[in-house]
């Protein structure tokens, strides 16, 4: 069984502020380190075997416990890794000897503006590259850094915060002990040697995580994982079955004529946040923002999962429409003072079929997307909303997986498809 558990919904017995979210936890304890480990053994491990560990949480946990077994009097260690991400400032790993487990947490951008961070030693480490060492019990320590008052209450007598790399001081660490009078100079010298090697590993993990974050943001999680796994050759990919989800903003050309470009950007961001958020909330994969349009898929493999995918896609469409209603009723602050854009309306089409999910494009510039007749048909079906006057249109290929609550709107000819397509829409008032 994996030593990692996902406890994001129940971080007990620890508490984290709103901008910090628990991602996963490991609680192997002293078993994470070989018995009898010495400081020389840790250096050898960092130079050799540690490089094969792919899970950063386990690597950090093993490093901590090796230090403990080797005699370093650690009672608290935190690692902080900055990142490039549209919503996060970074990640952190927190360990205390009291409960003996390591938490991986993600830290939202809002944390960097909080009073608690601005008065934390880590702020000065990040901004100025300082090395800060304090006795939390010393007069004035808690006034300088409020967190030191908490650490003093926990019995900490020596606290050290330091940068792990020179790349903008993005990666940082804190260590602390309850053993009086604190870390000895010899112990700190040993730690300095080991942390130089440890920092190289953290830089490697950081680069991998930043790559993953960037690909997730621009390609979507599914496509990103495939690219990171090596699927980068033009033409490489897979044929998959999926419910295709196509959305289009109504009257975008007229909106573009009436609004300033800056207001259009705000409007599109609010619109896409609702649309993409609904897709992701129901397990779909957002593939493309095309002008004012969005392309997403809900992949499946069997008949049973086809039903699940169809239901998820429909629920995502309903949630998206409710989200647009909310924007119209209570605009975000950036739009509240702008005239000429309400009511914001969109159309969504759901279709099912086999598509190619992979790399297409020129040798020097690839795109990871889906193509196929089903994608084209979904786009053509979405265009029928101008005449059918329904916000959500569903083809028979998807409707057959759904139970009731649909109105049949008849067969309709769509451009580029020889046979008419039966179209359905959620019954008015049906949820």
Strand order of the largest sheet: 1-2-5-4-3-8-7-6
> Which runs of at least 5 residues are low in confidence (pLDDT < 50)?
none
Quick check: average pLDDT?
91
Could you give a short account of the major beta sheet? 8 strands, antiparallel
What amount of the residues lies in strands? 25-35%
Question: What's the total number of strands?
Answer: 16
Number of helices: 15
| Structural class based on helices, strands and sheet pairing | alpha+beta
Shape: elongated
Report the end-to-end length measured between terminal Cα atoms.
40 Å
Radius of gyration based on Cα positions? 27 Å
Residue share in helices?
25-40%
Task: Describe this entry's structure for a reader.
α1 (39-47) runs parallel beside α7 (185-219), α7 crosses α8 (221-228) and α10 (261-281) runs antiparallel to α11 (303-329). The protein is α+β, with helices and mostly antiparallel strands and 431 residues long. It is elongated, with a radius of gyration of 27 Å. Helices cover 39% and strands 27% of the residues. The strands form two sheets. The chain has an eight-stranded antiparallel β-sheet. Strands 9, 10, 11, 12, 13, 14, 15 and 16 form an eight-stranded mixed β-sheet that branches.
């Amino acid at each position: 069984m994996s030593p990692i558990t996902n406890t994001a919904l129940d971080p007990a017995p620890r508490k984290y502020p709103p901008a910090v979210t628990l991602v996963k936890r490991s609680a192997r304890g002293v078993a994470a380190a070989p018995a009898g480990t010495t400081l020389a053994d840790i250096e050898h491990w960092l130079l050799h075997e540690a490089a094969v560990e792919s899970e950063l949480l386990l690597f950090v946990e093993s490093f901590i416990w090796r230090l403990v077994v080797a005699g370093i009097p650690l009672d608290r260690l935190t690692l902080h890794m900055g990142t490039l991400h549209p919503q996060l400032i970074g990640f952190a790993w927190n360990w205390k000897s009291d409960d003996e487990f390591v938490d991986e947490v993600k830290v939202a951008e809002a944390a960097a503006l909080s009073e608690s961070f601005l008065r934390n030693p880590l702020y000065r480490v990040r901004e100025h590259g300082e090395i800060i060492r304090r006795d939390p019990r010393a007069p004035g320590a808690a006034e300088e850094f409020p967190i030191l008052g908490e650490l003093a209450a926990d019995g900490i007598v020596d606290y050290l915060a330091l940068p792990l790399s020179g790349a903008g001081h993005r990666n940082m660490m804190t260590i602390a002990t309850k053993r009086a009078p604190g870390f000895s100079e010899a112990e700190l010298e040993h730690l300095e040697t080991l942390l130089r090697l440890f920092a190289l590993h953290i830089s490697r993990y950081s680069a991998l995580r930043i790559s993953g974050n960037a690909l997730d943001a621009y390609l979507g999680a599914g496509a990103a994982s495939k690219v990171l796994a090596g699927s980068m050759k033009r033409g490489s990919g897979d044929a998959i079955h999926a419910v295709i989800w196509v959305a289009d903003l109504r009257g975008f050309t007229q909106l573009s004529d009436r609004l300033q470009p800056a207001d259009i950007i705000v409007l599109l961001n609010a619109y896409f946040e609702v649309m993409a958020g609904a897709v992701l909330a129901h397990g779909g994969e957002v593939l493309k923002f095309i002008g004012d349009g969005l392309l997403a898929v809900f992949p499946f493999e069997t008949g049973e999962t086809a039903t699940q995918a169809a239901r998820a896609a429909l629920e995502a469409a309903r949630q998206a429409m409710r989200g647009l209603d909310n924007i119209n009723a209570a605009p975000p602050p950036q739009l509240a003072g702008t005239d000429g854009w309400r009511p914001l309306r969109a159309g969504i089409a759901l279709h099912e079929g086999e598509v190619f999910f992979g790399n297409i494009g020129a040798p020097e510039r690839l795109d990871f997307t889906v193509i196929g007749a089903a994608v084209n048909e979904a786009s053509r079906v979405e265009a029928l909303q101008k005449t059918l006057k329904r916000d959500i249109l569903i083809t028979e290929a998807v409707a057959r997986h759904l139970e009731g609550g649909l109105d049949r709107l008849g067969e309709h000819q769509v451009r580029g498809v020889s046979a008419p397509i039966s179209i359905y829409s959620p019954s008015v008032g049906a949820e």
